[in-house]
Amino acid sequence: MKYWLLKSEPDVYSFDDLIKQKIGTWDGVRNYTARNNLKKMEEGDLAFFYHSNIGKEIVGIVKIVKEAFQDPSTDDHRWVAIEVSPVEKLKRTITLKELKENSEMQHLELVKFTRLSVMSIEKSDFEQIIKMSKEKAN
User: Which of 4, 77, 120, 134 is the most buried (most CB within 10 A)?
Assistant: First the structure.
């Protein structure tokens, strides 16, 4: 199993929108690095759902339920989409600010490459962020 982080602007598509839908299509990605990450995802992989621009915080966990396929929002064969389903909402959101202030999280792509919309994350970091979400904020 691999671990990922997916970014979406909450005023366009939020974690609550995904909960209502039950299965959502992650489409519209137009960055080659992000697209390549989508292509590497496998059914059953887990990803954090990150609200970008508004909030800038990890809000939930999703599961990849359908691997890369032609992005339905374009006829251009270079772009792919995936399908995800919600797993759970985090007990406490984890903000980008909190991650940037944590010396153990400085290596995260989210901290170093804040504009990338689809990125990988190590299992140990995924588990640490879940642990942080269960603790009180500092």
Answer: 4
